[in-house]
Specification:
Elements: H1 5-17, E1 76-80, E2 94-98, H2 104-117, E3 120-121, H3 128-139, H4 153-171
Parallel strand pairs: 1-2, 2-3
Length: 172
């Protein structure tokens, strides 16, 4: 499951101490973006590594090699769009991120398959109740749906007229 708990804890502590590396004087000028760029100025304090300069990224800030690039839970992240892609993955090492390109029907099928196989899903985003209601809606034909679910156009127009009258009174 988790690669190495000791190294994951070490990475977590290192990340807390790691400064946010900002481009020199990005706080001073709006045109200079925050994203890191190496300082190349002749008299730059940052390039000369003076105490007054901002911190620059160095080798010592890097996380341990065994846990580098892993999800905070300790799993290797894998983006999945089809059920066939799951055949190459191990449930003890990989955590699943379901692609955002999938619609509700294929997404539900993929979630069901992953849960049966015991994979951890990182971006489920909905509760078990919502999954069950979506499955029920997918199975039920349109003719069985109740009329109450559909909005009556006449009621909608009346409510819009009432809102217009209220706003006109408030303007006065």
């Amino acid at each position: 499951m988790v690669q190495d708990k000791r190294l994951m804890e070490l990475r977590k502590r290192m990340n807390k101490k790691r400064p946010s590396f900002r481009r020199v004087e990005s706080w001073r000028y709006k045109r200079v973006k925050d994203s890191w760029r190496k300082a190349r100025g002749i008299d730059s304090k940052t390039r000369k590594k003076k105490k007054s300069g901002v911190k620059s990224p160095t080798v010592g800030y890097r996380s341990p090699k065994k846990v580098r690039g892993l999800h905070p839970s300790g799993y290797i992240e894998a983006r999945v769009t089809t059920i066939q892609e799951l055949n190459n993955l191990n449930k003890n090492q990989h955590a699943i991120k379901i692609s955002g390109k999938l619609g509700a029907k294929k997404r539900l099928a993929l979630i069901d398959f992953c849960q049966k196989r015991g994979f951890k899903i990182l971006n489920l985003g909905i509760s078990q109740k919502e999954i069950e209601s979506l499955e029920a809606m997918a199975e039920a034909p349109i003719s069985e749906m109740e009329d109450e679910e559909f909005i009556d156009v006449d009621d909608l127009e009346d409510s819009i007229d009432m809102e217009d009258k209220i706003t006109k009174k408030q303007r006065r």
